[in-house]
Amino acid sequence: MPLLFNVIVGHETAAIGDDTACGAVGAGGVGWRVAQMSQRTSSRLQLKNLHLAQGHRTVLEHVDGDIRPGAITALIGANGAGKSTLIQAIMGELRPAGGNVICSVPSERRAWLPQQLALDLTFPMSVEELVMTGSWPSHGALKGYCAVHYRKGRDIMARLGISHLAHRPLGELSGGQRQRALIGRTLMQEAELLLLDEPFANVDSDTVDILIRILRQMADDGTTIIIVLHDMDHLRRLADEILMLNGGHARWVAPSELHHQQLPAQAVPFSLGEHHAGTA
Amino acid sequence: MLELLNTWLIAPFDYGFMRRAVVGGLALSIAAPPLGVFLVLRGMSLIGDALAHAIMPGVAIGFLLAGFSLPIMSISGVLCGLMVALLAGAVSKIGGQREDAAMASFFIISLAAGVMLISMGGSSVDLTHVLFGSILAVNATALLLIAGISTLILVTLAIIFRALVVECLDPLFLRGQNRRNGWVHSVFLALLVLNMTAGFQTLGTMMAVGLMMLPATAARFWSRRLEGLMAIAVVIAMVASTGGLLLSFHLDIPSGPSIILLAGVGYLFSAMFGRYHSLAARLRRKTAPLSAEAST
């Protein structure tokens, strides 16, 4: 397993140490689940012949698919393949140039952790308060919190292993702690649709383990999760469905395809894309 | 000793104008600093200055039409300030220029226009009044106006508080939910304009910003919590406005500058001796590892 990561291209080398550590844990049988989750409801998020452009440059064309509810859908592809663009479109931040995104999740149940955080780390706020802000969209701006909210907030922090940081100001958190607090906010929000753009970048391996467990629990509870991943190990452990973006097109790939690939091809998701281009 | 305290602190308030001035100052001291705290947190500390200039033409037009009548000057000041803020916002939205650049341009134009209008219609004494205020001439109507505006600001701030906090903390969080939160920003700017108008009578358009910004920037050295920042800023503003009034009474100096300078002394003191980020805190931090080792 450790050898595998040596193949990963330059920008990912920083994560190698962490990845090998997780790899050792993951190999023990955590793994991803076979995509046979309950088909509880029809998809609440559908992409219909989606055409996305940034300015005059077409980024993605003919993207189709139903995002399965209660499953973790991974977006993979090279830098610039359009992963973040697709996320923006799903979130309603970018108007599609053609086709549409049909989303029936109410807006206060949608959560988004962008790659480039807009979070102001100098803002005088503690971790607990940040987690509690997750209840604002549904709770309203005027009502006060009651004991139930605080209890829920504390439970969430305990699950994420950040109880001891509850009163720590945001500016003093490490990258991993910050990411846990932000996931805590989406748990507080009871998000039904969660979009994560490379949530494991600059995050320690303990945090990755906890977040993977929490995300899996969220999915089991019915949250639809879309996650941008670069790392094969994370992909293996999390993804129920994989949407691969390559050369302006999107293609659904079964996780089992990744599993049965030869190792060198697995190491870099986008080389896998080229490999499949012929077979598709 | 008591005698001395009486002559310095109590006796001045035997005069009606001093009583009105101090009540007006306290009302402003409750309303303005929380706005200042949010401005500082949003990294918009200089916008207050700009907005203060924006109300100038309105005040001047009111002054030309009705003489030194506070209600009319205030209303036209608010209207003008809002209009300039809207224009600046529109230019940056439509033309794509950054909002601060658009604001800076509009506000300096406003200042020039305001000064020109006033000097066309009045004497230089009037100009000084508008620019630097005259807290000692606050009448009952002006007092009502100041108290009314301050109340309005506090109530509105309480209503939009959470939205404002989220917008400062993480603008993408609410936007991610497809809510258009431009209104929070607009309401906040409107509150700033209102506050300027309440302040210009007593402190002058140039100084009104002071009671809003200085306590807020000083409070940053004392607290790392939002509630703490606001409470400390309000206390600093109250002490500064009351103390400044007394100073101006005893030393026979203009009230606006003496209030703001007192707040400025508070700021410098905080910058040197405050609990966080101050000079003293920096010195303490250098020695911290040793003491931490000793204590464990």
Describe the structure.
The complex is a heterodimer of chains A (280) and B (296). Chain A is built from 11 helices and 9 strands. Chain A has 280 residues and is of the alpha/beta class. In chain A, strand 1 and strand 2 (57-67) form a beta hairpin. In chain A, helix 1 (16-27) crosses helix 7 (205-220), helix 5 (147-160) packs across helix 6 and helix 6 runs parallel beside helix 7. The radius of gyration of chain A is 19 Å and the shape is globular. The two termini of chain A are 28 Å apart. Residues 1-40 and 262-280 of chain A have low confidence and may be disordered. Chain B is an all-alpha fold. Chain B has one domain (2-282): Orthogonal Bundle (ABC transporter involved in vitamin B12 uptake, BtuC), CATH 1.10.3470.10. The mean pLDDT of chain B is 84. The longest helix of chain B is centred in the middle third of the chain and has 30 residues, at 140-169. In chain B, helix 2 packs antiparallel against helix 10, helix 3 (47-54) crosses helix 10 and helix 5 runs antiparallel to helix 6 (99-121). Chains A and B meet through strand 5 of A and helix 8, helix 9 and helix 12 of B. Chain A: Keywords: ATP-binding, Nucleotide-binding, Transport. Chain A: Residues 45-272 form the ABC transporter domain.
Strand content of chain B: under 5%
Q: CATH class of the domain at 42-105 and 192-204 and 222-257 in chain A, anyone?
A: Alpha Beta
The helix count of chain A comes to 11
Shape of chain B: globular
Q: What is the CATH homology-level superfamily of chain B?
A: ABC transporter involved in vitamin B12 uptake, BtuC
What is the CATH homologous superfamily assignment of the domain at 42-105 and 192-204 and 222-257 in chain A? P-loop containing nucleotide triphosphate hydrolases
The secondary-structure element order of chain B is HHHHHHHHHHHHHH
Second-tier CATH architecture of chain B: Orthogonal Bundle
- Strand order, main sheet of chain A: write it out: 5-6-7-3-8-9
C-alpha end-to-end distance of chain A: 28 Å
| Overall pLDDT level of chain B | 84
**Main pleated sheet of chain A:** 6 strands, mixed
Question: What fraction, in percent, of the residue positions of chain B are helical?
Answer: over 70%
- Extended strand count of chain A: 9
Any idea what the CATH architecture of the domain at 42-105 and 192-204 and 222-257 in chain A is?
3-Layer(aba) Sandwich
Mean pLDDT across all amino acids of chain A = 75
N-to-C series of helices and strands of chain A: HEEEHEEHHHHEHEHEEHHH
At the first level of CATH, the class of chain B is Mainly Alpha
Integer-rounded radius of gyration of chain B: 21 Å
End-to-end C-alpha gap of chain B: 49 Å
